[in-house]
Amino acid sequence: MAEVWLDTNRRALGMGLVLPGSIAAVGLAALAYSFWSRQHWGLQLVLVVVTAVALWMVGELLYALRCPRVAYDDGELLVYLEPTRPTRLPVEIVECFFLGMGDSELPALDGAPPKTRNVVIRLAERAQEWRERPVRPQFGQWCDGYITLRGTWCQPLTPQLLKDLNHKLATVQRQRRRVHEEEVA
Length: 185
Description:
With about 180 residues, the protein is α+β, with helices and mostly antiparallel strands. It has three helices and eight strands.
């Protein structure tokens, strides 16, 4: 079981559940009424489609609620920059976490895009095969050996949280080096 290091923004996802959850509830009620009152099959078909789409959206958001942004599992850092699966990185190539600032990818307010704190993960230069990856721009970016996780979709980012992330990283890397040295000896 993966150890969660950086959680998702549960408040934003919870608020995102309101509209599709409401549509699904109203759709189910209307669908039940339309069957009970023997409404036209065309109306029932529309209600089925609308309700199914809303339920699918609710399912996607509920799944996203249980996915972290960063986790650790058996020598790999799991970075969630896609909605359904993580990218698994060897923890040995991760150098550090630091706090950054950037566009939130949310709609512009007063003509300027809103800014957000970001978590930036720096990868070792020797890890050339991990330099870039295509990712969902809403969740972050991955280029030049840096992975940027948009703070919009993370738990609240504080300097203490970044200190804790770097401490966990250093602890895991020390343990893995020690085990490797014991295996070689």
